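## retry 2 of 3
previous attempt timed out at serialization; input unchanged, resubmitting
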Amino acid sequence: MTDQAPVKPVRAKPVSTERPVPSAVDAMVAKIRGLISDGGLQLGDSLPTEKELCERFDAGRNTVREAMRILKAYGVVAVRPKVGATLIDDRMERALDLFSFNTLDVSRRTFNDIQGFRKLIEVGSVDTIFDHVTADDVAELRAINVALRGAQSIAEASEQDFRFHLRLVSILNNRAVRDVYRIMKPVIIRIMERGKQIRDFNADTFEQHAAVVDALELRDRIHYQYALISHLHLGLWAFDEEGEAEQPAP
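## retry succeeded, writing output
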């Protein structure tokens, strides 16, 4: 019998707990942001010039220039010829631009995620909505719904549909919620358009909205939740499962 050499145990490599070192540009972005906060700079204030930033942080011109480009893309600074960099707050507009750039079709997973989020806001906030709703809110929702019924195209109907739901969440009087809905508008509109391609958008959506408004006017929480959940979930079957349409069994 041949002697076999003993098998040496394999030592596991130690897992590094060190954080990755940020790039020079990322580090410069952090430094400029620190300069803004520590210096107490306000909107409209000017930042140091490119040359001053290079000297202050001992950095190359390309590094500073790229960092400023990133801050500009974030909507934090505006850079103008002969004026230099000034502090602005266009972050919401930048977020809207980035979200609307998404031109991909809507999958079943995206549908579930978006409608699930909307359910948390529109249905989960039922008590706050009912505490704040007024006769003017009800009248405006009905007017938007009438405009939806008279829409001449899917695109027009979807715009009115979005207006209805944006007006509904506006009852919460929460600017952050309205801003999030504005950011999500391109995908929400795409979901609405997809659903209206397979249903009578003039009648079906109008009737579903009318049931929601009726429940609001009657202060009927149960019927409000039921009508809105049914409305948000309608059309799920029309969306593809990971890009593959579901086919009925033969």
